[in-house]
Design a protein that fits this description.
The structure is a homodimer of 345-residue chains. The first copy, chain A, is α+β, with helices and mostly antiparallel strands and 345 residues long. Chain A has two domains: 157 residues, HIT-like (HIT family, subunit A), CATH 3.30.428.10; 144 residues, HIT-like (HIT family, subunit A, 2-Layer Sandwich), CATH 3.30.428.10. In chain A, the strands form two sheets. Chain A has a ten-stranded antiparallel beta sheet with strand order 3-4-7-9-8-13-14-12-11-10, with helices on both faces. A four-stranded antiparallel beta sheet of chain A has the order 2-1-6-5, with no helix packed on it. The longest helix of chain A is centred in the C-terminal third of the chain and has 22 residues. The radius of gyration of chain A is 20 Å and the shape is globular. Chains A and B meet through strand 1, strand 2, strand 8, strand 9 and helix 2 of A and strand 1, strand 2, strand 8, strand 9 and helix 2 of B.
């Protein structure tokens, strides 16, 4: 059975997922794993293989029959989930004093958002209107987990390429919902609350204002509802934040106009990354407020999409300290990405 | 010029290191980088190449002539440092309100501890008495940075194998000293202080006691001064904590007996990892209290060495949430490593 465990020293939860368990000899040392899109398909995520994956939890299609093959975006349970909703009663347990109240069953949901039935297309190769449907799927699923009070946290993310953690080449994102708030989000909530207490303003509203009006050296692109910037203190080279101009702590409150504008901006940004670094592995993560009433409509927190190509290898310094060494100043990264011409979307 | 920058949202410092800067096209996509020890040498870290590296900052040798080739352990400045002591006056600056007081010059020191003059030997292949000298070099350098009040933090770490961040195969560790305390250590200090406030005891003293006396399922090995355990909530599969039995917040207070015992325990542990996973890439990081009087002899913090083989690929979930998915329960990892027989050291 999977478990969630808290490290009281580091103040963070981790997931122990036996279902994904391996014997020591099962860990591969192969490095020939970065072929992106090299698989020819079809695969289990393709059109016509719906029966392989069990029932969908959400889909966008023209017809009205669940699990039919006419979908454009389809959400299913991950076949090798890190957590599952079968895993027992949500009761904090532990072991002695030092590990007291540090264990929960591995309750949660791990879903896959299949972005297109077409095995050959990558996300930025889809029309912006189709990318908008992927973003709507994120919204629908977060709304679903908002409606179940057992869930406290939902992380939407995309791994592209094996080196970025993807095991399937067919274009997809994922979502993990948990009954605890993950460490990084707690840190961001603390940081944004601190800033708000000092200045009575949202930190990312101030970032958008500063980087579009006062000092545009980190600005990459801008449309009516969104900006992309190279963050002032980026952890990764060419890291990009895609920020909504309208203040909102919760992604799921995004409206139709904004979804369309975000889709265009995401397409443009991923096209630039693919062109600049020749289809690199990358991740993006949706940083949005935790679930539950107490975390809804916060004045201090502002959701954003954090996009990072995988260009460097992390080592012991980053692992031990959490201080990342970035070889590219964000002002230089932004200048390069701003001038990347990929044609209009 | 390198810079240190603070992300006020995430509350963490990062290093922008132009000296390691690259143009977008310089980022390699090659994956054929995990050959461990496959380089035949000699290299710049080898015996007889002392002149290539500039003056040593510390060495252990029989003779008394600096930079002479009779060293056994030698510490030099990193040729491609992330930070340097030339980088300007230590004055907090910033940009506007949102990035106010968020920038320091890239002041610091980045050193390489060459663990042996012999290109062919890995750290666990050295005699324990030689490993003890490597551990003494760590101690000497931390003591040096303790004596300079501009430094607030020192991270000792080892990257073994390219996938773990190493660019040289010749056995070495590194050290980065900074004028700010890195995020992960701040979190650990908060966590250990919280536990101390609640229980009036050190959390890692309690861990040692629990895992050696009450519930030994996570215990791997034990000698007179040290234990190795699989931590209760490990971020990585087969992560190992090497913990001193005597409470001490600062590694540099280690005594001669303890250094010898730690060397034997480190040798045994790395031998087990090499045998179990066939010479995998790995990192270890020395988690010790920050520098400065206010962080010396803390009752709540307890130094330790965190050892993690690189067996899995991290993805967007870990990047966005800080919640790690570990496919191996620590009790199973400990059982396997406990029973790993590598002969006596």
């Amino acid at each position: 059975m999977a478990e969630l465990r808290k490290d009281q020293l580091r103040q963070s939860w981790i997931t122990i997922s036996d279902k994904r368990g391996k014997r020591p000899t099962d860990f591969s040392r192969s490095d020939s794993q970065s072929r992106d899109g090299a698989s020819v398909g079809p695969c289990a995520f393709c059109h016509g293989f719906e029966h392989v994956n069990g029932h969908e939890t959400f889909a966008i299609r023209d017809g009205d029959q669940d699990d039919a093959p006419d979908w454009r975006v389809r959400v299913i349970k991950n076949k090798y989930p890190a957590v599952s909703m079968d895993d027992g009663e949500l009761k904090l347990e532990g072991e002695g004093t030092v590990y007291g109240a540090c264990r929960l069953p591995g309750f949660g949901s791990h879903e896959v958002i299949i972005e297109t039935p077409n095995h050959q297309l990558t996300l930025p190769e889809l029309p912006a209107s189709h990318i908008a449907e992927v973003l709507k799927a994120y919204q629908a699923r977060i709304n679903f987990f908002q409606s179940d009070s057992r869930f406290k946290f939902c992380q939407v993310f995309k791994n592209r390429g094996n080196r970025a953690g993807a095991s399937m080449t067919h274009s997809h994102s994922q979502l993990i919902a948990l009954p605890v708030i993950a460490h990084n989000r707690m840190c961001e909530l603390d940081g944004s609350q601190d800033y708000y207490n000092k200045h009575k303003r949202c930190i990312l509203c101030d970032v958008v204002k500063h980087d579009t009006q006062l000092q545009r050296s980190r600005l990459i692109d801008e449309n009516e509802h969104f900006v992309t910037i190279a963050p002032y203190a980026p952890m990764y080279p060419y890291e990009i934040w895609l920020l909504p101009k309208r203040h909102a702590s919760n992604y799921e409150t995004i409206n139709e106009d904004e979804i369309q504008a975000m889709a265009r901006m995401l397409k443009l940004t991923l096209q630039k990354i693919d062109q600049a670094f020749r289809y690199p592995p990358y991740n993006y993560t949706l940083q949005t407020s935790p679930l539950g009433e107490g975390n809804f409509n916060l004045a201090h927190y502002h959701w954003y999409l954090d996009i990072a190509p995988h260009l460097t290898t992390l080592g012991g310094f980053e692992m031990g300290s959490g201080c990342y060494i970035n070889p590219v100043a964000p002002e230089k990264a932004a200048e390069f990405l701003r001038n990347c011409n990929v044609g209009s979307s």
